[in-house]
Write a structure and sequence with these properties.
The radius of gyration is 16 Å and the shape is globular. It has a single domain (about 5-90), classed as 2-Layer Sandwich (Alpha-Beta Plaits), CATH 3.30.70. Helix content is about 25%, strand content about 30%. It has helices at about 5-10, 20-25, 40-50; strands spanning about 15, 30-35, 55-60, 70, 75, 80-90. β4 and β5 (about 75) form a beta hairpin. The protein is an alpha+beta fold. The strands form two sheets. A four-stranded antiparallel β-sheet has the order 1-2-6-3. It has a two-stranded antiparallel sheet with strand order 4-5. One of the early assembly proteins it binds 23S rRNA. One of the proteins that surrounds the polypeptide exit tunnel on the outside of the ribosome. Forms the main docking site for trigger factor binding to the ribosome.
């Protein structure tokens, strides 16, 4: 197994996604994160395991096609992004909403 620098791994996970679909996935012990475009599945697994101190069993990634956006006569594109759906082992969980 390859050793990763913990400082580099922290930069791969950008933010957790909190949508209706993502909260439904949390009931199945799956969490959704925005990750860097260059991040690979083993790097994402290592990053989540070190940041949250959990055991990751599976990583699925999504990289949808760019969408066109039009402002007046100018046509542009929305920014590219990559999402990772991370499945944790049964005994682990991540607290995204700490009690206030």
């Amino acid at each position: 197994m390859t050793e990763y620098n913990p400082r580099d791994l922290a930069d791969l996970v950008l933010k957790p996604i909190v949508t209706e679909k993502a909260t439904l996935l949390m009931e199945q012990n799956k969490y959704v994160f925005d990750v860097a475009l260059k991040a690979t599945k083993p790097e994402i697994k290592a990053a989540i395991e070190t940041l949250f101190n959990v055991k990751v069993t599976k990583v699925n990634t999504i990289r949808p096609p760019r969408k066109k956006r039009r402002i007046g006569k100018f046509i542009g594109y929305k920014a590219l992004y990559k999402r990772a759906i991370v499945t944790l082992s049964q005994e682990d969980s991540i607290t995204l909403f700490p009690d206030v």
